[in-house]
Write a structure and sequence with these properties.
9-stranded parallel beta sheet, globular
């Protein structure tokens, strides 16, 4: 092959794959398919919801509503379910216990401008008295033992239930008591005569300055809502102190609350301090369970009946002891048949029947 022929072969242009018949349409179709696929993928990604980030953890978005199972339907089939729109939890109240999630729904503070005194606003409606002798049963020291508190709350009412200021989960417990028709009071710890007894944290004591007393009273009254007033836990030393009780009654008067004197000492000046500060007042007549036996509690309940027949009304105070709960569970259903009216303490105050007469000879000085 000559040199000229070799040069001609090297200079001859090579055929491209596109020069083949039908190659160009196939290429265009492939490009179109790739473009459609990319567009669909981008569209789907744009519609996907972003994850919700909690700290370093990514979770799925929340549902549109929280489902709450309502109790009471377990025996009749599947539990009833109610849907509520999600909402952020309310801010905690200062010094509120961590176990509660929100204030009791029925016991929230009144709107501004409501001048109704709290002891009337939160009073439990009274059963029809119709001239019958009235008996009010007060149970103190509630809230610390939740199991026994639940047993007391389950009793026939209306009872007047006094919850300790330093108990936990007070919003839930007091809401349950209110829902059962019971009246609520704050059981305020106060200094006893006997120094061997500890009234508890934030107790009111005679050696505290007025500013500290007011702070402690305010703290105790911030622990839950819906109460009609205060009664003393222990307090045989403090309730006999005119200066200290004046501060207490000034604070109760300012808030429209009543005072129930547990009468742990015959030297109590609570009635005089209440009168001077225009605070609605009542006093205990019978202690139910200084001696803890069912027979003893039943005997004290009979004394309450006798006192009510003689004076028209009686206030009996007990505690969440097993024997007290057992005796009350059997006694409460019998009252109507005996011709008595079981009423909350506020009913007696409204009727002017809560006279400060007490059963004498009770071993109360140690409290």
């Amino acid at each position: 092959m000559s040199r000229y022929q070799i040069r001609q072969m090297l200079m001859k242009p090579k055929k491209s794959p596109l020069d083949r018949p039908g190659a160009l349409p196939v290429l265009m179709a492939a490009v179109l398919a790739v473009g459609i696929g990319l567009g669909a993928g981008i569209g789907l990604f744009a519609k996907a919801p972003p994850p919700v980030i909690h700290g370093d953890e990514a979770t799925a978005p929340p549902a549109a509503a929280h489902q709450v199972v309502l109790p009471g339907a377990e025996d009749d089939g599947p539990p009833e379910v109610a849907a509520f729109p999600p909402s952020p939890p309310p801010p905690p109240r200062p010094e509120a216990d961590e176990a509660s999630t929100q204030p009791a729904a029925l016991l929230v503070p009144p709107p501004r401008g409501d001048a109704t005194p709290a002891w009337i606003r939160y009073a439990v409606p009274s059963p029809r008295v119709a001239g019958r002798p009235m008996i009010a049963v007060v149970i103190d020291d509630l809230g610390l033992d939740r199991h026994r508190a639940e047993r007391v709350i389950a009793l026939r009412g209306p009872l007047t239930l006094a919850f300790m200021t330093y108990a936990e989960d007070l919003d839930r417990q007091t809401e349950a008591a209110h829902a059962r028709g019971h009246e609520l009071m704050v059981h305020m710890p106060m200094q006893p005569v006997n120094g061997a007894f500890n009234a508890g944290p934030e107790a009111l004591a005679v050696d505290l300055p007025p500013e500290e007393l007011r702070r402690r009273i305010g703290w105790g009254l911030s622990r839950f809502h819906g109460f009609v007033g205060v009664n003393n836990h222990m307090g045989s030393r403090f309730t006999a102190d005119p200066a200290g009780m004046r501060v207490v009654m000034e604070e109760l008067s300012r808030r429209g609350l009543m005072f129930l004197d547990s009468v742990t000492t015959e030297k109590s000046v609570a009635d005089e301090a209440a009168r001077r500060n225009h605070v609605p007042f009542a006093a205990r007549q019978i202690f139910l369970d200084n001696q803890q036996s069912v027979a003893s509690v039943r005997a004290q309940l009979e004394k309450a009946e006798a006192w009510a027949r003689r004076h028209g009304s009686a206030i009996a105070i007990g505690h969440p002891h097993d024997v007290t709960i057992e005796a009350l569970a059997a006694w409460l259903p019998t009252l109507e048949g005996k011709g008595f009216a079981l009423v909350p303490v506020t009913t007696m105050v409204k009727a002017g029947a809560a006279v400060p007469a007490v059963e004498r000879g009770m071993p109360s000085a140690a409290r």
